[in-house]
Amino acid sequence: MKLDDDAIDRALAALPLEEAPPGLHAAILAGTVYRPAPLFSLAEVVTAASVIAALVWVAVLMAPQIADTVAATLSNLKLLAWAGTGIAIATWLELFTISQPAYAASRRAKGHFEP
Amino acid sequence: MAALAQRADAALSAELEDGALVSAVLRGDSEAFATLVRRYERPVYHLAFRTLRDAEEARDVAQEAFFKAYRSLRTFRIGAKFSTWMYSIAYHACCDRLSRRKRFSGEELPESADPSPGPEPTVIALDEAQRLRDAIELLPEKYRVAITLYHLQGRQYEEIAAVLGLPLGTVKTHLFRAKEHLRRLLERSP
User: Fold this and answer.
1) Residue B38 domain boundaries
2) What is the CATH number of the domain that holds B101?
3) What ipTM score was computed for the predicted complex, to two decimals?
4) B141 and B63: one domain?
5) pLDDT digit string (tens) for B87-134?
């Protein structure tokens, strides 16, 4: 069989294209226009990540200083004594002053009504 | 010849609509993109199938190509040919697959394909179209891609050159040699 250029062109033009597999159209649309929008936009994710990174960086920088401060405070007995006294007074004032909110609340809960 | 010219004309008028559809997608019209997919899924799949010779991979590449096109639609220059842009994306996705294949199995890339017709052709004459398909299958990669695009696009060498990223002269040479190979294969087949 002899074929000239035109015969090949005609044959190529008449050659039907392969059918796209079933489901391809739906798969493409599901991955593009019908794809659910992400919960956060890229800008939001980048901003949050930057803020977290900055906080972590600051925390890492300050960690030794914070640890030193806490250690110095806990080892100062005078300071601890004053702090303990302050907390005790605050607790006493809270429980036994005239207003006695905690006491009144507990009485109200038990059904005692004040005039 | 006339059929090819007619196909080229039809493609030309379709391009005007393609541009409008792209603009509509950019305005948020999802149906416009569905229309573009309907219009190009078959030729894109055909190109991938002819290049890769694997139905499953061709399906994946067609999908990838449309995903990429959708993501980069803003970079599409309105007024350019959407088909050229789309085929170019699909062809590059095919090249990525082929280079991955090469990494794992040593298969050759289109650029370095052997220009000889490959294994001794055994074209089975089922019918005319099948015979031609079988002959195209036996072409070396670069000729197969060129003839597939020629088949998809009609006689538009410039588009094929743009899709493949090759000089016009090289495309013409590829097509000439591809047709020579095809002729030989078809003449040899019963």
Assistant:
1) 1-107
2) 1.10.1740.10
3) 0.72
4) no
5) 999 999 999 998 888 776 655 545 434 444 444 444 443 477 888 888
3-state secondary structure of B19: helix
A15 to B151: CB separation less than 8 angstroms, yes or no: yes
* Chain B residues with beta carbon closer than 8 angstroms to that of A5: 179
**B151 chain-A contacts, CB cut-off 8 A:** 12-13, 15
Domain boundary among B107, B135, B161: B107
Each residue of A2-14: pLDDT tens digit?
A: 677 888 888 888 8
Q: Do the chains contact at B150 and A32, CB–CB below 8 Å?
A: no
B177: enclosing H helix or E strand: helix B168-188
B112, part of any domain: no
Residues of B in contact with A14 (CB under 8 A): 3, 129
Alpha-carbon distance A35 to nearest alpha carbon in chain B (angstroms): 11
Residues of B in contact with A6 (CB under 8 A): 1
Neighbours of B95 (CB within 10 A): 19
Three-class HEC string of B21-32: HHHHHHCCCHHH
Q: Are residues B24 and B60 in the same domain?
A: yes
Instruction: Decide: residue B170, CB within 10 A, 0-12 exposed, 13-18 middle, 19+ buried.
Output: middle
* pTM of the predicted model as reported, rounded to 2 decimal places: 0.64
Q: Does A25 touch chain B (CB under 8 A)?
A: yes
